[in-house]
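Q: What would this chain look like folded?
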Amino acid sequence: MARSGLGQDPGSTAAVAVIKRALELESESRYPQALVCYQEGIDLLLQILKGTKDETKKCNLRKRISEYMDRAENIKKYLDQEKEAGKYHKQIKIEENATGFSYESLFQEYLNEAVTEVWIEDPYIRYTHQLYNFLRFCEMLVKGPCKVKTIHLLTSLEEGGGKEQQSSGLKEIKESLRSHGVLLELEYSSSIHDREIRFNNGWMIKIGRGLDYFQKPQSRFSLGYCDFDLRPCHETTVDIFHNKHTKKI
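A: My prediction, written as C-alpha cells:
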C-alpha cells in the first residue's frame, strides 16, 4: 500500500493507516472488524481519487480500490455464510471502569427495520436501578430504527420486600409501552439463570451480567448519570451470535 502512489497529505496518510489495519485484522481472522476498516479505507481512497488529476496515479488508485473492494466483498460473503449456518460469533470484552458501552452503542449495529419482536431473558430485573436499565433498553427499541411490536421479558420474581416495587415498576413500563403501540409480555421463573437477548432478525446477544453491567454513578449530578456512554462499567463479556431462525424463550 505504501507504494501505491499516494502522497503524504493527511487524507492519504489516513487511508494508508486504515487499509493497513484492515489487512492486519483480516490476517488475524477478525473479519467483522476487517470489513469495517476496508469500507472506511475504500471511502477515503475514493475521496482521494476524486481530487487526483495525474492519470498514472488515478490508474494505480483504481487498481487498489478494486483490490480492496474484492477483499471486502469476499469477507462479506463469508460472514453471510456464517450467519446462514448459525456459526457467526463475535466477542466483546468490557473492562472494569470502561466507558462508551451504552445500550445504543452496544446494540444499535444489530437493530434494523426487520426487528419487530424481542426476547429478553434476565433474572435480575428486580430492583429500582435494574428496572431503570430495562426501561432504557425499551426506550432504545422504541426510538428505532426497528419497528418493535412485542417485547417478551422472562425474569425472576422478587420474593422479599421489593416484590411490590418490581411488580408496580414493570406494570408502569408495560402501560407506557402500550401507549407507544408495543406489547410487553411478562413471564417469571424461579430457576432462570442465563442472560440472553434475541431479536427476530436472527441476532442473539449474551451479556455475562445481563443489562445490569453499569456501575453506580458517583452522584445524581455526575457525568454518566444520564448518558450511559459516560457511565463506567463493571467487567463483563458480551457474546454475539447470529442464527437463521430465532427461537422463542
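DSSP finds six helices and seven strands in the chain.
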